[in-house]
């Protein structure tokens, strides 16, 4: 009987510990000059997205606001570590502490407390989440709807202008973003991949000509890759290859990898002998 009672107590203890850790609150941000409010937005699939709204402490009445549109990868936009060395984290925390503006951020599907699966999210679903978060932001009485700014970080720089829809915006800012079409981006990545593989200039030029045809039919004409290859023998040799851009896009979607795996000055462990960015800086590049 004593043995059964001991076993029961152990099971109860294990259950209590498991419940404690399962229900533990995530580590939160703290600022000297701003208060963090937590909300929800809902995307077109009905899944909830965690939002982070900051309100400056020292400003009375309505204040201007910055709406942040995030990157491609599956990483949270919440930065609880005040001593972060991450470039975007430093930028976000500095603006929250020093600007006197309200700020709004949202976590992607399946990231942090947001529902869904980031690895399966498509463009339209993600955009609907940001648009919903933007609409929710306008409900806060301390935000001045006539003084709104949208800041797109990395991939968000290209999609930021779509978030506000018809609402007037004072300005759009693209930080470490891109400025050309995905078709041009893919050709650029293919040329870089071939060069890094040690191909001669002539081989690179010949292959890129084939990729011009392939991506024109695939991205512009809307044909499926298998269809392109079947109907156009000239690009059949491209089939065994998976482009650098595709590998990086897949890697960026994987929550096991950090958002900044493209950054040339960040430490990447055994993969490269590179130094971290100086505090408060981040390279502006077009390869994201």
Q: Overview of this structure, please?
A:
This protein is α/β, with parallel strands linked by helices. The protein folds into 2 domains: 34-175, Rossmann fold; 182-257. The protein has 8 helices and 6 strands, in the order αβββαβαβαβαααα. Strands 1-2-4-3-5-6 form a 6-stranded mixed beta sheet, sandwiched between helices. α5 runs antiparallel to α6. It is elongated and about 65 Å long. The protein starts with a helix and ends in a 35-residue tail after the last helix.
Helices and strands, with pairings:
Blueprint: H1 2-22, E1 34-42, E2 48-56, E3 63-69, H2 87-98, E4 102-106, H3 123-137, E5 143-153, H4 156-163, E6 171-175, H5 182-196, H6 201-220, H7 225-231, H8 244-253
Helix pairs in contact: 5-6
Strand pairing plus helix content: what structural class? alpha/beta
Helix content: 25-40%
Calculate the mean pLDDT score and round it.
Answer: 81
Distance between the termini: 65 Å
Give the CATH superfamily of the largest domain: Alpha/Beta hydrolase fold, catalytic domain
* Number of strand segments: 6
Q: List SSEs in N-to-C order.
A: HEEEHEHEHEHHHH
CATH class bucket of the largest domain: Alpha Beta
By CATH, the architecture of the largest domain is named 3-Layer(aba) Sandwich
Primary descriptors:
alpha/beta; 288 residues; disordered C terminus; Rossmann fold; six-stranded mixed sheet; 6 strands
Précis, in short:
This protein has helices spanning 2-22, 87-98, 123-137, 156-163, 182-196, 201-220, 225-231, 244-253; strands at 34-42, 48-56, 63-69, 102-106, 143-153, 171-175.
């Amino acid at each position: 009987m004593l043995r059964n009672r001991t076993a029961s107590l152990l099971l109860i203890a294990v259950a209590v510990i498991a419940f404690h850790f399962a229900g533990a609150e995530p580590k939160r941000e703290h600022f000297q000059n701003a208060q963090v409010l937590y909300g929800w937005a809902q995307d077109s699939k009905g899944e909830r997205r965690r939002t982070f709204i900051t309100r400056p402490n020292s400003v009375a009445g309505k204040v201007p606001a910055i709406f942040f549109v995030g990157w491609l990868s599956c990483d949270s936009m919440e930065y609880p570590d005040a001593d972060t060395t991450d470039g975007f984290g430093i930028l976000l925390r500095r603006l929250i502490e020093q600007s006197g503006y309200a700020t709004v951020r949202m976590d992607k599907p399946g990231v942090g407390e947001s529902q869904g699966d980031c690895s399966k999210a498509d463009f339209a679903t993600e955009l609907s989440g940001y648009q919903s978060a933007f609409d929710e932001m306008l409900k806060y009485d301390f935000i001045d709807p006539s003084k709104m700014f949208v800041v797109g970080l990395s991939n968000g720089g290209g999609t930021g202008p779509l978030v506000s829809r018809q609402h007037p915006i004072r300005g759009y800012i693209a930080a470490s973003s891109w400025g050309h079409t995905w078709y041009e981006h893919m050709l650029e990545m293919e040329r870089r991949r071939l060069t890094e593989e040690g191909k001669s200039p002539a081989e690179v030029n010949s292959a890129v000509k084939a990729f011009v045809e392939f991506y024109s039919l695939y991205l512009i004409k809307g044909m499926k890759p298998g269809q392109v290859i079947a109907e156009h023998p000239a690009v059949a040799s491209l089939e065994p290859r998976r482009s650098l851009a595709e590998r990086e896009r897949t890697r960026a979607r994987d929550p096991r990898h950090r958002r900044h795996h493209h950054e040339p000055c960040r430490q990447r462990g055994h993969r490269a002998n590179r130094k971290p960015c100086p505090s408060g800086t981040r390279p502006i590049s077009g390869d994201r």
